Amino acid sequence: MASFGKRRPKPGPSKNEQKALRTERARLAALLKDRYPSLQRLTIQLEFLTPQKQSFDRQKRELSPDSVCDLSVPCPGCNSGSFDLAAKVQAVIVAHEALSESGGICQERAFAEAKAICGFELRCRIEALYKA
Ligand SMILES: [Zn+2]
Q: Which domains does the chain have, with CATH numbers?
């Protein structure tokens, strides 16, 4: 058997595993400019309401092109549910809208056996500023 001086590959993650890791890292680290190159700024105002419709908390997120594009909002009511704004933001950008209001109710069950859902409500206002 001819030897070309190549060393045997070190045992480690397979190529497929390495690729999966890279994809996962890329997804987590995706920047706003990578995902939405047309955006100059994305401003998301969040208001959380309790199931009794009382204002619980307000947050504001401002994303610049170099911000990590994190569009998942953890629910403050149950700590296990979250609101995913990615689809909404995507729709806003595809439609080239400057402003959109949206909302949703956390469907997470506080306990596995509980019948009631968390019921916290998120209202959000998405403002998109596009590059000229
Ligand atoms: Zn919740």
A: 31-130 (3.10.20)
Q: Which residues fall inside 5 Å of ion ligand 1, going by CB? A: 75, 77-78, 81, 106, 108, 118, 120
4 Cα–ligand 1 center, Å = 60
pTM for the whole structure: 0.75
What per-residue confidence (pLDDT) applies to 84? 93
Gap from CA of 42 to ligand 1 centroid (Å): 24
Q: How many CB atoms lie within 10 A of CB 114?
A: 10
Mean pLDDT, rounded, for 32-56: 96
DSSP H helix total and E strand total for the chain: 3, 6
Write the DSSP string, 80-103: S-EEE-HHHHHHHHHTT-SEEEEE
Averaged pLDDT of the chain? 87
pLDDT in tens, 78-118: 888 999 999 999 999 999 999 999 999 999 986 666 678 99
DSSP, collapsed to helix, strand or coil, labels residue 1 as: coil
**Could you tell me the sign of the dihedral formed by the alpha carbons of 129, 58, 105, 26, in that order?**
positive
